[in-house]
Each structure stands twice: as C-alpha cells, then as structure tokens.
Predict the structure of 4-hydroxy-tetrahydrodipicolinate reductase.
Amino acid sequence: MTTTPVRLLIHGATGRMGQALLRLCREQDSGCEVVAAVARRVDARVVDGVPQFAAAELAGVPAFDVAIDFSLPEGFDAILSLCIARGAALVSGTTGLSDAQKAQLDTASTKIPAAWASNFSLGVAVLHELVARAATLLPGWDCDIVEAHHTRKLDAPSGTALTLGAAAQAGGAQPHYASIRAGDIVGEHLVQFAAAGERIELAHRASNRDIFARGALHVATRLRGRTPGSYRVAELL
Ligand code: NAD
C-alpha cells in the first residue's frame, strides 16, 4: 500500500531548527514533502526545489496538511491562524510563548489537531516521567533545574526547564531554576533532588539538533488526518 507524503509547511525555515528539518526531509525517507518554507525574510523564491515565502506572504502559501513551527513567539499567532483557516494540523516547538498564546493554542485545538512541546526528543519525554516519579517519591527534598544552551537562545529558563519544573511541581516539589548561556551548547538539562547527605541527578544532554527535528517530523506524520485535539508528544513519539 502506498501512502501519499504529508504536505509540510516549515515555519522558521531559515533558522537552526528549520534548516535541520529541511535537510532531514531531503536526506531521508521522512514520508513528508515540504511544499512551503516560511521565514521572517527570504532571499530566493525557490531553494532546493522548495518554494520560499516571507512571513508577510503567509496567506499565499499552497495547500498543506501540517505546519511545523520552530520560529519565535512573534511569528506564532500568524501560523496558528493560518492552520485554523486551512484546517491543517500544527506541530510547534517554539518556546517563550506568552500565557495568552498558550490559551489561544488550547482554543485552537478544538478546531485542529495540535501538538506543542518544549522539547521533541524521546530522551526528554522519558526524563519528564522520571522527574515526576522522583518528585512524588522524595517529598521535602530540594529540587533544582540547571539548563545550558548556546548564546543565541533568547528565552531563559528554557521551555524544557519550565516543563520539567511543572512535572516536578505536579509531584509536590518546589523547583528553582538556573540558566547558562555559553558557546554553541545545543541543550542540556539537569534536574537535581537533594536532601541532607544525599543527592539524585537526572540529566539529558543533546549534542545534535536532529533529535528535535526527527521527533517533530515523526509527530507531523502521526498528526495528519487526526480529529481536532491537543496531542501530547510523548504519546506520538
Ligand atoms: P533561530 O533564531 O535559528 O530561527 C528562527 C526562525 O524563525 C528563522 O527562520 C526566522 O526567520 C523565523 N522567524 C522569526 N520571526 C518570525 C516571524 N515573525 N514569522 C515567521 N518566521 C519568523 O531559532 P532556532 O534555534 O531554530 O529555534 C527556533 C525556536 O525553536 C525557538 O523558540 C527555540 O527555543 C525552539 N526550539 C525548540 C526545540 C524543541 O524541541 N521544542 C528545540 C530547539 C529549539
């Protein structure tokens, strides 16, 4: 049986994540076809056979099944509105969203299938489960979350640190955060639980952005054709 490729719009296409997504779609059998690459500004109409669109031209993109968004919070509202208008699914990894934007995403998920995650790696999905369990088993222990990223990352603490913190909080811990911005670190998260005389450290280190891009592509292929709703990445990976 042959399945038609998922028609993808990549939002944030000229960025670090956007470029990783486009390369993986070119290199491997991802089951996806990129029909539009959108960025704040574009220098050419077509790159490697993929039509390019500036953010201001978003309304004119061709039909697509799923938008994958790794951009910035200021670009998020437009791609969310477009997905609703076109009845397309949205996979977003953009961090630093405001509370209002998160509420808009919740509302949108009554109309379209949507999956937002601060981190699309399988390892971090598992780390969430471990942190939640540790917090439940260790009442009263100190909980600290230390994250490190490259110097061009804009938000701090990272979206992943905040999501891990929410998992710890749900288990009863009161997490504190520390952020390091240095060099070209792709992404590291350490969750430490400490009490008198002992410490537990749970850590995840990403050395390559492809883990996030592969996760987002996988989620996109699983989201096409689903009923509207807010999907957890852990259940789709
Ligand atoms: P980047 O700065 O390298 O790229 C940002 C991209 O967004 C560029 O293509 C830029 O043109 C585009 N953009 C900016 N403003 C826009 C607008 N108004 N409309 C349309 N496009 C716009 O950033 P990056 O390192 O690729 O990261 C992008 C986002 O993804 C960040 O929020 C980052 O924290 C997040 N991220 C998430 C994960 C995850 O797994 N969820 C992993 C890595 C990065």
